Amino acid sequence: MTPILTGFAQSPDRGRGLARDMRVRWALEELGLPYEVRLVSFAEMKEPAHLALHPFGQIPTYQEGGLALFESGAILLHLAGQHAGLLPTDPLARARAVGWVFAALNTIEPPILDLFTARVLEGDKPWAAERLPLVQDRIRTRFGQLSARLGAAEWLEGDFTAGDLMMVSVLLRARSSGLLEEFPTLAAYVARGEARAAYQRAFAAQLAVFTALSDGS
Amino acid sequence: MTPILTGFAQSPDRGRGLARDMRVRWALEELGLPYEVRLVSFAEMKEPAHLALHPFGQIPTYQEGGLALFESGAILLHLAGQHAGLLPTDPLARARAVGWVFAALNTIEPPILDLFTARVLEGDKPWAAERLPLVQDRIRTRFGQLSARLGAAEWLEGDFTAGDLMMVSVLLRARSSGLLEEFPTLAAYVARGEARAAYQRAFAAQLAVFTALSDGS
Asked: Which positions in chain A have a beta carbon within 8 angstroms of at least one beta carbon in chain B?
């Protein structure tokens, strides 16, 4: 049975591939698995049918046979657990790769999301200009630590793993801030991720959704 | 080989069990596994020896034989994968339980941590009083959604799982804000978690560290 993802009907990033469905598309492409995408509008995301799939009213959701999952990290680990290619077979190396999935989502992504809060959600507040540098410095702290750990390595834990897939996906969300370019080690790491054929296929697929909808409007 | 955790030598919450070592202690107690704790000071956490274990200079770390892990979510999934008791054996139910671990860490915890940012890190800023209600409302949105999903159920996915362990641990971090009490369903859920014998043993163990250090100072 072909799995079904949900994605934004109206891409908030205009096809730049920053929405969380991209992570799952990329994983499916790395694993060579077919999938279908069902687009949902912002209004539909708050309706009971979607909330039954995703209690927090977001995308992506993932449906496969009797399974309905949400949270991109959980979907990624589910796919990587069912199919070879995104996690090492050695149990210790596998645990470390899973560790990087959590580090991406719980340590690196929150300060990056706070940048969105500062610039967009609170962009019209009187404190916006003065608060932004504080938020940026918290990101710099994490980027510096991550850059130091990565060092001259190509990927975080030997070969490319689900941990790299999630870390690159999260780091891409900071690109428009210019902060990524302050850390050449990380900028090069992200570029290596983007250069993967599976990333390119996933990116093209989500861009096609935006392009088709733009042409039709 | 007995696993070794790290915890704070100087408990920032004065033994209230809100530091992230508590999640791992709780998991180990649920599984009936022995463990040792090595306490580290804030200064030691920034030194190379600790950064080799945890690149972001935090606690907990988890060492067991040749494995060194960080990120409480990864440690929890590692333990739950190696020992029966915290994840269902049915693969679909297991994937859903893992989903709740990610929901706790990636959807519920970030806005709660932003409360700490607003009240402590930016507590002396001119915008502190005006910004706080915005942060609180973001938490209320998530708490309302989680409360709606939990409904009359005892736990999030049938029996108690690693997902509940992490969700209760994260929700406890909001208790001092008073926001948890606005959602009686969630307050009762957290109380059920705290009432578990394994939670009580883990809580007592971390409190003993604080008490011993306080007596000695």
From this structure: 51, 55-57, 66-67, 69-74, 77-78, 92, 95-96, 98-99, 101-103, 105-107, 109-110, 113-114, 117, 121-122, 125-127, 130-131, 134, 142, 145-146, 148-149
CATH superfamily of A4-85+198-216: Glutaredoxin (3.40.30.10)
pLDDT in tens, B28-78: 999 999 999 999 999 999 999 999 999 999 999 999 999 999 999 999 999
Domain boundaries, chain A: 4-85+198-216, 91-196
A64 phi/psi in degrees, rounded to 5: -150, 110
- Non-local (6+) Cβ contacts of B193 within 8 A are B164, B165, B168, B169, B199
Over the stretch A55-73, which tens digit does the pLDDT of each residue have? 999 999 999 999 999 999 9
Across the interface, do B106 and A105 touch by the CB < 8 Å criterion? yes
The CA distances from residue A16 to A42, A134, A165, A169, A211, in Å, are: 18, 26, 16, 12, 11
- The pTM is what? 0.96
Partners of residue A95 in chain B, C-beta under 8 Å: 67, 69, 74, 78
The CATH architecture of the domain made up of A91-196 is: Up-down Bundle (1.20)
